[in-house]
Each structure stands twice: as C-alpha cells, then as structure tokens.
Amino acid sequence: MKRSIGIHWVLLFLVFCLVFFRLYQLHFYPDPRIKQQSESQYWSKLSLSSPRGRIVDRNGVPLAISVPAITFFVDPLFWRPENADLLKPIISRERYFRLKGNLKGRYFPVAKKVDLENANEIIEKDIPGLFWVKEYKRFYPHGELMPQVLGFCDIDDRGLSGLEYLWDFLLYTPPEMLTVTKDASGKIINFPTYSDRSWDGSRKGEVRLTIDSRVQHVVEKYLRKAFELHHADWAAAVLINPKTGEILASSSFPDFDPNIRKTFLRSESLRNNVISRVYEPGSTLKPVMMGIALTEGKASPQKDHFYCTGKIRVADTTIHDVKPHGSLDLEGVIINSCNIGMATIGMRLDPKKTYNHLIRFGFGMKTGIELPGEEKGLLNTPELWRGSVPANVAIGQGIGVTPLQLARAIAAIANGGYIVKPFIVKEAVTPEGEVVYRGKPERLGQVISTETSRWLKTAMENVVKRGTGQAVYRKDTRIAGKTGTAQVARGGVYQKGVFVSSFVGFWPVDDPENLLLVVIGYPKGREYFGSVVAAPVFRDVMEEILKISK
User: Fold this and answer.
1) The dihedral of CA 402, 404, 409, 413: what is its sign?
2) Distance between CA atoms of residues 43 and 239, nearest Å
3) Alpha-carbon distance 218 to 303, whole Å?
4) What is the pLDDT of residues 271-305, one digit of tens each?
C-alpha cells in the first residue's frame, strides 16, 4: 500500500518536472514557428507611405514636395454608427453611409491622407473606435503652376504623369512598415501618435529643373489672361534660352491643380500643349523657310522683288493674302508677312532638299526633351509634295509642328544658325548625393550660316519696328519677332473663322538670351490675328522679365 502511494508521488513529481521543463523551454528557447504564430496574434504590420524626393526649380525653389498627412480608420468592434456625422468633413457620401451601418471585422478604412489642419479637428474630438496613423502625401506649393510638366501622383505616391512619372524611379521611396500592438482578442491597442514617430527628415532623391519659377509665374499669368479673354480652346507658351536650349518657362492651358484631383478629370487639361499639340504654324515658319531659300540660293536680298496683288494661282490652288502689298523686296516679304512672296519662293525650292533642310531644323521628329508624351509633328515625305504643296509649306501650311519644335527652329536663327537640344532637367540626384543625370547645352549642327542668321535677325527686328509685330516694340530693347495667323484644316479643308494665333520673338537681338513663343488655339470673337491675340502676351511677359533681370 505504502509502496503504491510512493510510486504515485514519484510519477506526479516526474510529470511536474516535465511540465516545468517544457514551460522553461517555451519561454527561453521557443520554437520559431510557434513564436511567429504567437506574435502574429499580438502584432500587425501597417504600410505607411514615405516622403518622395523633391522637384525644385533652377534656384532651389520647391515645386513638388511631400508633406505630413493623416490616414483614419475605425475598429468596428468599438465604433458607434452615430459618430459618422462627426466625420462628414473628411469622408465621401458612400463612406458615410457605410459608417452609419453595421461594420464587420476589426478594420475599416475611413479617409486616406487627410491634410493636418482638417485631421487635427477630427483628432481633437477623440471619437471612440477611430484610429489614425501618420503618412505623407504629395503637395504642389504653387498649385496650378505648370501641372502638365510636373505631373501628379496616385494615392500611394507613385508618379502617374509628367516629371513625377518619368523620374519616379528616383523620387519614389518605398513605404515604411509600422508595427501595431493587439491584445489577446485581436483588438489593436496601441497606435502611433505624433510623438511616437517623427517625420522622416532623411535625404531623398531630387530633380532640379532649368525652370525659373519667377518667370514661370509671369508667363502663366499673361497666357491665362489671353486664354480666357479670347475664349480659346487651348494655349501654349515656351521660353527658351536660344544659345543653350534651357527651358526657362513652359505653360499650357487648359490646366489643373494637382492638389485637387477633381480638377484634372478633363483629358484636355492633362495635355502638355508645348510638346504634344501639333498644329500648322502659319507665318511663324516663314523665317525658317526664307533661311532655307537663302541657303539654297533660291532667294537673293539684292535681286529679288515681288509685286503682291493679294492672290496668286499655284497649280490647282489660289493662295490669298490679307491684302495687296504691292512692290516688295525680300526683306519686305518677311516684314509684311506676304504669302504671295513666300509662295513664289516656295515654288522655286526643290522638295527633296527642302524636306532635308526641315529635318535638320528638327521638324518631323521629337526634340528628346526629358518629358513624356512628346509628339513628333507631321512632315510629309518629298514624294507627296505635289502641286501647290511647296508653296503651302513656304507659308506654314501642310506641315504640323509642336510649339517646342518651332521655338527650337527659331532659336537657330537667333543664335547664329545652330540647332540646340532643348532640356528642362538641370540635374537629378540620388538620395546618396550622386548626380545620375545632368542636362547640358548641346549643339546638334549648323543649319544656316552666320550671315543668313544675321540677315534674318535684321528682317525680324524690322517686323517689330515697322511690320506686323509693332505691338511688342520697345525703344530701350532690340527685339526680333514674327507673327502668325494660321487657318485650321479639318478633313483636308480649311475652316472658316477657325485660327491659331501666334507670336515668336527673341531679345536682345545682338546677343539673345530669351526666346518666347506664344500660341493661342482657336480664339473666339472678332480678334484672331497673331499681332492682336498673341503679341500682347509676348510684350507683357518680356516687360516683366526685363524687370526681374535688373
């Protein structure tokens, strides 16, 4: 009997030892699988967006940055539907009715990346069951400033358009994984607060532009004014240094505010007209065509004289002018923007050679600027230059260009005859400080001689002094320019009363540092000439730039 009791005590002691040993083992030497399973019941990971790198102008002024924001969600177990009314300022109608109903599970998203001002008002209400975490969202300090160039990001801060898209690989920072604590029932019991997680101040990638934000504001102000005044369908302006190819300003309308998503629902607002709008340049192409004729020896300042009656028959087409200009020398053709004189010169040119010259000027191909969505324009091959086509091209019809292509071509006239490569990114730097890209001036070849460039600059200066560009004349600054008023063709037929009005010019003539092209698409109303619609924009922008430069 005593022996049996002793055995029981021994067995009980052994069982106790085994249990104690197992508890000791689990506590100090747990199985990794068991540990992971156990911890997963008390810990959870939340993905929180990190700040993207900045986009800044040539002087370091921020154009696109990341700012703190708050993301809200509720735990349905502790949520009271009547509190949905307190969240109305930050939630959608659909989300409101969901919060008023019966929610299931332990997590329901409420609002993502709310700005701090609105978020603080909600946080101060201390609503039961409502939790929040800190994230980052993209912010554009200047609002509607060149949104098509900068682009925008999705809700997860991935670039979707413009520079944000093109340089996403450099600007994007992977999200931070944040651990939150849950109790035994699965309820999250610890969330980060403002003091728990400091805003990330580590170095990020950066893209520095050639844009001068001061000048960009000026260009946009006056282009917007003309766009609205003339009820235009679209507008574009580009300011370029004709010697280096640096883009100093680039503006496109209609536009949008990348900070307000509902403003860029229209596809036309997303379009960067400077690089993707293809249009017939009209008379702004005449200096280029005159340069080709002078290069080919098909026009002579000493010998050529024309008599403009206001119209001329070419093949099966009659080309008209605004009015009869009477007797003109070669310079007078440019000064008065005479279609008859240019059409006559155009018919002298060999189509194949003219085509090759236009290719060298950069037409019919992309410029290669560091922006997505660029169009190559329209330049038919010489085989299609039949009948009146050479005459039409000479007056800027039958050829499609982008504003940037035309600005670059005129820049060759301004800088002594050289085609330059336009660029808008000055440099791109990794988070480690390594410069992975640096934009630099690049000459792609000489398309006209220095002598031809000098003659054309003089002719374009006289356009401003006594021709169609007198609206931009200044006594204290030498300015060269050219007006353009092009009819719009649809289905091969030029439409009555539908025009593209433009003006291109550069200053100072002797050593140009600024070349500005202004294009107003389809202005409505009585005024449609480039000299009246586009030239005033050029004048106002130039005058403010001259003040900034002092």
Assistant:
1) positive
2) 56
3) 44
4) 999 999 999 999 999 999 999 999 999 999 999 89
Q: What is the pTM of this model?
A: 0.86
Final residue in a domain of this structure, among 115, 136, 157? 136
Please provide the DSSP assignment of 141-152 as one string: TTTTSSHHHH--
> What residues contact residue 473 under an 8 Å CB cut-off, 6+ apart?
464, 465, 479
**CA–CA distance, 534 with 550 (Å, rounded to integer):** 25
User: Which listed residue (49, 161, 251, 283) is catalytic?
Assistant: 283
Q: Give me the domain span that covers residue 108.
A: 66-136
Mean residue pLDDT across the chain: 88
Please enumerate, as own/partner, the contacts of 88-95 that have beta carbons within 8 Å and a separation of 24 or more: 89/118, 89/121, 89/122, 90/114, 90/118, 90/119, 90/122
Contact at 8 Å (CB) between 436 and 422?
Answer: no
What is the Cα 489 distance to its own chain's centre? 27
3-state secondary structure 86-114: HHHHHCCHHHHHHHHCCCCCCCEEEEEEE
The whole-angstrom distance between residue 162's C-alpha and the CA centroid of its chain comes to 5
**Short-list 433, 296, 294, CA closest to 356:** 296
Q: Is 283 marked active-site?
A: yes
Same-domain pairing of 224 and 109: no
* DSSP strand pairing (54-56 vs 206-209): parallel
Write down the pLDDT at residue 77.
84
| C-beta neighbour count of 152 within 10 angstroms | 22
**In terms of C-beta distances under 8 Å and separation of at least 24 residues, what long-range contacts does 116-124 make, across chains too?**
116/67, 116/68, 116/69, 116/70, 118/89, 118/90, 119/69, 119/70, 119/72, 119/90, 121/89, 122/72, 122/86, 122/87, 122/89, 122/90, 123/70
Check which CATH number belongs to the domain holding 86 and give it. 3.90.1310.10
pLDDT, tens digit, for every residue of 170-206? 999 887 766 655 555 555 555 544 334 444 555 679 9
Sign of the torsion angle spanned by Cα atoms 115, 54, 153, 132: negative
pLDDT tens-digit readout, 440-485: 999 999 999 999 999 999 999 999 999 999 999 999 999 999 999 9
Q: Are residues 286 and 393 in the same domain?
A: yes
